[in-house]
Design brief:
This protein has helices spanning about 55-65, 115-120; strands spanning about 5-10, 15-20, 25-40, 40-55, 70-85, 90-105, 120-125. By secondary structure, it is mainly beta.
Length: about 140
């Protein structure tokens, strides 16, 4: 897929869980993404904040194993949302719909390493067939 974001960041807050009117689980969180570049020979550090939405089982797993400060790698698709404020001003924002993730550690690296090893990763687009099953 061409329109995919893949990146690593730290959760800025614990994952929030809500349900739609139809009962579908929706999980939202923000990641702080560090970026650095050089300008005039000096290293410049910049942090950007992005909002993510994870639906169903994907969000449930992320919520279960993470908390604020956790380092998380995500693959996501951008989604634009538009709304109108009370004063009639139109607003837009870009959010990301999580399609895959990988746990990378926590801010406090003294967490139990055994528990970290048990943490799953997930990719919606995982190929269910082994390479040996492909006939070409």
């Amino acid at each position: 897929m061409i329109n995919t974001y893949t990146g690593i960041g730290r959760l800025t807050r614990d994952v929030e869980h809500k349900q739609t009117k139809s009962g579908t689980d929706v999980f939202t969180f923000s990641l702080a993404i560090d970026q650095s570049y050089k300008k005039d020979g000096n290293k410049i550090d910049k942090v950007s904040f992005f909002n993510f939405t994870a639906w169903g089982k994907v969000g449930e797993i992320i919520s279960q194993y993470t908390k604020q400060g956790q380092l998380l790698a995500v693959t996501a698709e951008p989604e634009q949302r538009t709304w109108e404020t009370q004063d009639g001003t139109k607003r837009t924002a870009i959010d990301f719909k999580v399609t895959g993730f990988q746990f990378l550690g926590s801010k406090n690296e003294t967490n139990q390493s055994a528990k970290q090893d048990e943490q799953p990763s997930f990719d919606i687009k995982d190929n269910p067939f082994a390479d040996d099953d492909i006939p070409f």
